[in-house]
Specification:
extended, 202 residues, mainly alpha, Serine Threonine Protein Phosphatase 5, Tetratricopeptide repeat
Length: 202
């Protein structure tokens, strides 16, 4: 019995060492591949990015009037400031991929434009959420639907809008949201679709 335990222990130790060496080798190869691609991407020449699919904030589609709540006004003002900046939805693309596609010299600008997009959809959600909390449903819908039109990847926006549609007894609009999800650059799409279906059927 004791000999069998010793043999099993030795076999486990050998197997564990093999797995560690295998994992280290894979990690090393992955790092080498990453740095090779990174070096190559840094040598990619600048391309013209003036004709990319920039987002233009349509202020006329949003409730821009002053509100009694200063927080709501602050969110509105942030969106107004963003309307004067270049905005790009580059969700899902790494810096290395961006450099390969558009040139290393453009990475700083592209990162800035992508950060503007992240700020845009984040502020639109907070704005819509705050309006909803204050009972301004129609204005909240305008803001949240506008965020959807910008292909927001903020899952909470879809869930809140679906909740409002549910309260208004308009399930067809929830179905439209569900149909829209495959077009969005977001992770865990199936989970989001299932959550929207749960809201609709609740």
């Amino acid at each position: 019995m004791g000999l069998a335990i010793i043999i099993l222990t030795l076999l486990f130790a050998i197997w564990l060492q093999y797995q560690i060496r295998k994992s280290n080798k894979i990690n090393k190869q992955s790092m080498e591949s990453f740095w090779h691609r990174e070096i190559q991407s840094n040598q990619t020449r600048r391309v013209n990015i003036s004709n990319l699919d920039y987002i233009t904030v349509s202020l006329e589609r949003l409730p821009m009037d002053d509100h009694e709540d200063p927080t709501i006004n602050s969110y509105r003002d942030i969106i107004y400031d963003l309307s004067n900046k270049k905005i790009l939805n580059l969700t899902g693309m790494t810096n290395t991929e961006l450099k390969f596609k558009y040139g290393a010299a453009n990475i700083k600008l592209l990162s800035e434009y992508d950060n503007n997009y992240t700020k845009l959809v984040s502020m639109l959600h907070k704005w819509g959420e705050r309006l909803y909390a204050h009972g301004n449903l129609e204005e909240a819908i305008l803001v949240l639907e506008y965020a959807i039109s910008c292909f927001t990847d903020v899952s909470k926006t879809y869930k809140l809008l679906a909740t409002i549609y549910k309260d208004q007894n308009t399930p067809d609009k929830i179905n439209s949201l569900i149909d829209f999800i495959p077009l969005v650059k977001t992770l865990r799409k199936e989970d989001l679709i299932n959550e929207l279906k749960r809201i609709k059927d609740s």
